[in-house]
Amino acid sequence: MRKCKFEDMIDGYLLNRLGQGDREAFEEHYFNCPSCFEKLQERDLVIRTIKNHPEVLTQESEAREPFFSRLKTELAAMFTPRQLVLAGVTAVLLLVVVFALVPRQQIPAPNFFLTDEETVRGSSITLISPVIDMGQVPASFEWKKLGENVEYQVSIYNHELLWKATTKENRITLPEEVRAKMVPGEKYSWQVKAFSADGTLIAVSSKVQFKIADK
Amino acid sequence: MVAKKKKEEDVQELIIRYRPIITFRVRKALGAQNPEADDLVSEIISQVLEKIKSGEFRGESSLGTFVYTITSRRIVDYIREKTKVIKYAPEPQAYPDPQETLESQEASQKIKEALSRLKPKYRQVLYLYYYQELSREEVAQKLGISPRKVSELVNYALKLIRKEIKL
Asked: Among A10, A21, A74, B83, which is least packed by CB within 10 angstroms?
């Protein structure tokens, strides 16, 4: 809306700063211009309030409203209600996208390095035992169960693959002949891979190292 | 019958439209505390209606200007009657005006709240400009900013207040 040229006279008129000619011209104008008269009344009330209650402007800030109320006021001054509603709707939509839709997207599974050349993506398997140095050759290996119909492949390494076996349980007992190959003072590592019923690799554990203590 | 009803409606519309403007003008000239202000407003409205009825308003100027002229003349006459001094036009009344209607008291309360919530920089500039009645240049000099910046601060503060009292 175009600003009326007389609007700039409102303060001058109310504060008695206009010359007689300007004052009379402005008075005649506001008898003819409802918009200017409305602004005049409003400004008159503001100035009258300031004149009657100057302490409102000189008091310290402690009586003032908290940050969010001021933010609300300033936002209301900067934007029209329509713009605020649009901003609100946009914010809600963004929240829906971020918190409801994005998590449903297929998030890439972490990478697992099987060997230097071999990398797969999949869920992780938590190994339970052995994960620290052992006083003797472990009798069995245990890990956290992933679900039903999962086949686990357990591999034990020295410097190279020492033994590999599969099971549907979440633990496996080491055969005597393998235990016999494992000697105190040596470092070993082990890893478990999980396969679905159709043979697809679905999860891999990290390769955990343990040492068998010297006797 | 229909014409008479239409005429009555026109008169009502005229009173509704111009009474607040005439009241504002009269109070500005005489002060709202003047006990005769309301009577003077009623008298001016009667004069306007009478002059329209007698055909004095011929549409040479706008109706607003016609009402303004009658209002200003009556104010001058009033001052003349009271003071017997004709030399100058009535001096406008200075603030503050202690008399406030219930409606304006409510609005004034809202404005007070809005003022108290303004940032110090806005409150300071409003205090100097409206309460101390310094010019924009004087406020600018006092605060070490440009007169243009003073205008911006005043206008923005008024905008904030306007939004708040209309919420």
From this structure: A21
Yes or no: say if B125 and B139 are a contact pair by the CB < 8 Å rule.
yes
Q: Where in chain B is the domain with CATH 1.10.10.10?
A: 102-166
Its CATH class, for the domain covering B7-83, is mainly alpha
Name the residue among A32, A44, A46 with its Cβ closest to that of B161: A46
Cβ-Cβ contacts under 8 Å, A83 against chain B = none
**Domain A1-64 -> CATH class:** mainly alpha
Cβ separation of A45 and B108 shorter than 8 Å? yes
- Average pLDDT of chain B is 83
Q: Which of B94, B97, B119 sits opposite A16 (nearest CB)?
A: B94
Give the H or E element holding residue A23: helix A20-32
Strand partners, A188: A210
In tens, the pLDDT along A78-134 reads 777 788 888 889 999 998 888 877 666 555 555 555 555 555 666 778 888 887 888
| CATH fold of the domain at A111-211 | Immunoglobulin-like (2.60.40)
